[in-house]
Amino acid sequence: MTDVTITLLPASPLHALEIWSNPASVAKRFKAACGFALPATGCSDGNDKLRVIRYEPTVWLVEGDASALSGILWDDGALTAIGGGIVRIRLSGDGWRTLLMEGGVFDAESPSFAAGCSAATIIDHVNVRLHVVDDDICDAYVPLSYSEAIIHFWKTAALSLAL
Amino acid sequence: MMQITCPHCGPRAQAEFVYERTVDSVVALDASPEDAMRTLFTRDNPRGVDDEIWRHTYGCRAWMVVTRHRVTNEISAIRAVGPEVLP
Amino acid sequence: MINFSFDGKNYTAQKGDTLAAALLRNGIGLVGRSFKYHRPRGIMTAGVEEPNALVTIGEGGRTEPNTRATDVFVYEGLVAKSQNRWPNLSFDIGAVFGLAAPVISAGFYYKTFFGSAKRWMFYEHFIRRAAGLGNAPTETDPDRFSQRAAFCDVLVVGAGPAGLSAALEAVEAGKRVILVEQDNILGSSLIRDPQELDGAWVEATAERIRAAGGRILTRTTASGYWEHDLVTLTQRIAEPGQIPLQGVAQRLWHIRAAKVILATGSIERPMAFAHNDRPGVMLSQAVRTYVHRFGVVPGKRVVIATNNDDAYKTAHALQAAGAEVVAILDARPAPAGADSGLPVHNNAVPLSTEGARHCLKSVTALVDGQAQSWHADLLAVSGGFTPVVHLHMQAGGTLDWNDAAQAFVPAISRQNVTTIGGAADPKPVFKMVPVSKPKKSFIDFQNDVTLSDVDLAWAEGYRSVEHLKRYTTLGMATDQGKLSNMAALGRLAEKQGVAIHEAGLTTFRPPYTPVTMGLLAGAGAKDAGAHVRRLALYDVHAAKNPIWQPLGYWFRPRAYPAGSETLAQAALREAKAVRSTVGMTDVSTLAKFEVSGPDAAAFLEIICATTVNKLAVGRGRYTFMLREDGFVFDDGTVWRLEENRYLLTSSTGGADRMATHISYVRQYLCPHLRVSAVNVQEHYAGIAVAGPKAKVALSALIGEEPPRHMSTVPAVIAGVPVIILAASYSGERAFEIYVEASHAGAVWAACETEVMEQDGALYGLEAMEFLRIEKGHLVVGGEVDGRMTPHDLALDKMLNKTGGYVGASGLSRPALSETGRRQLVGLEAIDGNNIPEGAMLVTHEGVSPQGHVSAAAFRIIEGGSIALGQLTDGFARHGEELIATSPTRGQKARVRVVAPHFYDTAGERYRD
């Protein structure tokens, strides 16, 4: 349970979708446009083209082509590009949960933190957003300026997980 | 390290949160100079329960009011603040 | 067979031996010298409570001083050294202190520190050489330390019979369970007393716990109990001094448990009698542990002193191992021990021991009021049992007094913790009062505190247990009084004439056993304690080999020296390029926020103390922000990119603070506003291009007329979309180019080509500082130091007259508009000296300062020292001459107060 591979994912368009008013109506329009519901706190949803992760109470991280969304927001929300400042790191292999406990404070070993779940936490002083892709894969979204440091931390920690 | 139950994320380690200030230290935007002075400089500092503003800075970034006993660290209530939120 | 060395001599140990067991196996009884009196000391216990047998383990950076020989397992090549002895262990010059004991009796340090400083100066050299433990290593620890979190429903501390059973029950009820044991094998008391439940039961139970998903951590000590049931564990992956397999020597666990079960057992108590610290005096259960666990019999002729039944097991164990039990001194009256078949003496308590060459020779006891002696080489002592309540107490618990056991036991706790097993229910004992002379009756063996020290403290008026502790240093050694506190409390209660539980208790503080500092630092033990934030364009800069400068958590180029240029030469050349042709620099670290929505302007007018809503689309302005108390805390620019979309920039150093402030205003103060304020600090990399040729360069880059000063346009450079802000911090016509950070490299390269085409240069923070000082622009953390109002900085004309911004109420306090406030001024040197940065401003030598120099530089083209500063009522003092003096650096300059603008005061160079 201690094998994990750390890979840098290629840059992808990322947007912050914030809703400041009439969230229920926006959610309805969103579902009609995208075919899936705006995910609840701690969750993600989506398809191959568009993945949406609840990021903050009023903010979703939109990964992929966000063009369909500008038409549904009206005066209730806004999209802001944020992808330049975020690095996506894929942790794959059955050891990712153990790895995330190193320097962490969040219960990534809980069975309830399963595919489709997301969480934001702090690991080795770096704020990290996690998204469980499936049993063997968890993606981490980390600030660009800290990405070197956290990758180095993970690669070092991965050497001694079994101890 | 305390455990604080974020109204949005559930129980999380204190390391994810930042204590910001007490509720009675907030200067209203329309405060008179006298009110501002009182709020800024002559607050209570109870040895016991107080309402504190915390932020889940390294989590969902939401703000909340935490009612905490400063001696025992017992947290008796946590209330979310902020705009209307989709469940 | 395992080879190890002690004080340079080679020995062998058996597999599973602690160093203490191995030393005893090799017949070594003298292991160390005591802290204060240099008395010879041996091995007293078989556990973490060991006060005497402290040794230094390992070599080089792996050296661990003050390691308990009872708490390190021998590995091949282990190197151990005794401590606190000179020239060697068996002949120690410091031992004369033992003869001169009154010199350093209780309160010696206390009196010395509170006496005159001279007294300390006199004693210091003498004390530092003589008193002390092992030496800290001077080399860097080559090992890594891991920190890991874990969560569970039930955490069980202690894997004795009670702990194992509790863990099994919980895990079989479907709970997430973690069981921790400080020893390297499970069983605890069952290792010492295998007849009660055998090793097979321990093995089978552990197997069932693991099979049901429970986690068992051995060699792991629960060392701290914190808030909300967080328990920290320290796990030894490698033994002290041992080269770890995968680089990780220890792991610090943070366990958040829904419930904690403490099965921590108890620690046997010594008895207080004269010379009770001699090698050969050992705790009874420890003797049994050496016999049963390690097959080592620590004596041939043994006297046992006890006040309880448990010590009889030791007698039987010794007999079975072939030792002779010559007497059992049982403090209890007959018929205690009568049916044991052993030479029992009732109403018997030890008075003293005699020894020779660091060995025990005989034991004298008071039996029914008569002194009687026995030849013996081992005295096994059992003075009762102290439940290990440390974690319970750290959790905020209370204690009850159990009179039958003469011990404190856990009562209630405000956390979810219960104590089970021996720690909750200690064995009954007979109450004893020391009868021996107090002088050499040690109670705190590690800090050399005797009963007579307690008596002295009492005689000198120290009544409370907290004062007693500090006066005598009792319980303040690395063992934290695990063996000593009860004896001291007993004596204090006797003096006070109260029951022991009325005498008070000192506070139990983490850690339970000593923790390596590196473990607490974790991954931060090497290099910086915090991560360095890396620029998106880091590789581009690094290739040019700049001088780097830390700025908050960032590192930014300070200058790009060419050839053998110094920092000052490089910075001046770079600044001249900006003044004469064009320069470019990386401004990516500036705080940046994109603010969208119908209420964006209204929101910004709460954050900013200037107006915002009058900006036309495509225009920007300088702005600043106030704290609630009316002082300026940051500044920047605000740009209207679209009808309902703005970009706000502010200082690098204040970026995190500003992000919090914006979030606070948005979420807490103004939840009703229809606005989204997103931190885009790292999304955009920023490149500033400044100088008389900047416009030409920009035209070439974007293929069109660049925006005029304080205007913004979207454009494309090198095929990459960018935002261009025409803003100047240098005083020249200048542009800031913002580009999505992942594409910044291409844009930087295109800009660099064009800048070089115009005979320009790259510039770093040092040149930027020269330029902005000459122009009189503010820097947050310099001129904006948290004590300046907008009026003090001459920004008041820009304030939003309608108010409504954060800080408007605070700013209207009358005190902030009184005279006598420090105000922003310019300074120019008039005596040819350079103005020292940070210097005080005085009218003449020897009077109170009236201000200070916040930043100093040079006129870039003409030369001459100039500076910005804060001066009392400075606006009205232009023309006055002052002295800028820095006594700490021995520098000063005569200066003239001028307006804080030294360059292009009319602002003509911005305009086309």
CATH C-level class of the largest domain in chain C? Alpha Beta
Radius of gyration of chain B: 14 Å
Rg of chain C, alpha carbons: 37 Å
Architecture (CATH level 2) name of the largest domain in chain C: 3-Layer(bba) Sandwich
What report would you give on this structure?
The complex is a heterotrimer of chains A (163), B (87) and C (912). Chain A is α+β, with helices and mostly antiparallel strands and 163 residues long. Chain A has helices at residues 23-34, 96-101, 144-158, and strands spanning 5-8, 14-19, 44-46, 50-56, 59-64, 77-81, 86-92, 118-123, 126-134, 137-143. Chain A has a 5-stranded antiparallel β-sheet. In chain A, strands 3-4-5-2-6 form a 5-stranded antiparallel β-sheet, with helices on one face. The radius of gyration of chain A is 16 Å and the shape is elongated. The model of chain A has no long low-confidence stretch (mean pLDDT 95). Chain B has one helix at 33-41, and strands spanning 3-6, 10-13, 18-22, 49-55, 63-69, 75-80. Chain B has 87 residues and is mostly beta strands. Chain B has a 4-stranded antiparallel β-sheet, with no helix packed on it. In chain B, strands 1-2 form a two-stranded antiparallel ribbon. Chain C is of the alpha+beta class and 912 residues long. In chain C, helix 8 runs parallel beside helix 9 and helix 11 (451-459) runs parallel beside helix 13. Chains in contact: A-B, A-C, B-C. Chain B binds chain C through residues 1-3, 13-14, 18, 20, 26-33, 35-37, 39-40, 53, 55, 57, 61-63, 72-74, 81-84, and chain C through 149, 226-230, 254, 256, 396, 414, 606, 628-629, 660, 663-664, 667-669, 671-672, 804-806, 808-810, 812-814.
Topology:
The complex is a heterotrimer of chains A (163), B (87) and C (912).
Chain A: E1 5-8, E2 14-19, H1 23-34, E3 44-46, E4 50-56, E5 59-64, E6 77-81, E7 86-92, H2 96-101, E8 118-123, E9 126-134, E10 137-143, H3 144-158
Antiparallel strand pairs in A: 1-7, 2-5, 2-6, 3-4, 4-5, 7-10, 8-9, 9-10
Chain B: E1 3-6, E2 10-13, E3 18-22, H1 33-41, E4 49-55, E5 63-69, E6 75-80
Antiparallel strand pairs in B: 1-2, 3-4, 4-5, 5-6
Chain C: E1 2-6, E2 9-13, H1 19-25, E3 32-33, E4 40-41, E5 54-57, E6 64-68, E7 78-82, H2 96-99, H3 108-114, H4 117-130, E8 144-157, H5 161-172, E9 177-180, H6 189-192, H7 199-211, E10 215-217, E11 220-225, E12 230-236, E13 248-262, E14 266-268, E15 281-283, H8 284-292, E16 301-306, H9 310-320, E17 324-330, E18 344-345, E19 348-356, E20 359-367, E21 370-375, E22 378-382, E23 385-387, H10 390-394, E24 399-402, E25 407-410, E26 417-419, E27 442-444, E28 449-450, H11 451-459, H12 465-472, H13 485-496, H14 517-521, H15 538-542, E29 547-551, E30 554-559, H16 567-580, E31 583-586, E32 591-596, H17 600-607, E33 620-626, E34 632-642, E35 645-650, H18 655-669, E36 676-679, E37 684-690, H19 694-702, E38 712-717, E39 720-725, E40 734-740, H20 744-757, E41 761-762, H21 765-775, H22 808-811, E42 822-829, E43 840-842, E44 851-858, E45 865-872, E46 881-886, E47 891-898
Parallel strand pairs in C: 1-7, 8-9, 8-13, 9-10, 13-26, 15-22, 16-17, 16-22, 17-18, 31-41
Antiparallel strand pairs in C: 1-2, 3-4, 5-6, 5-7, 11-12, 12-13, 14-23, 19-20, 20-21, 24-25, 27-28, 29-30, 31-37, 32-35, 32-36, 33-34, 34-35, 37-40, 38-39, 39-40, 42-45, 42-47, 43-46, 44-45, 46-47
Helix pairs in contact in C: 5-7, 8-9, 11-13, 16-21, 19-20
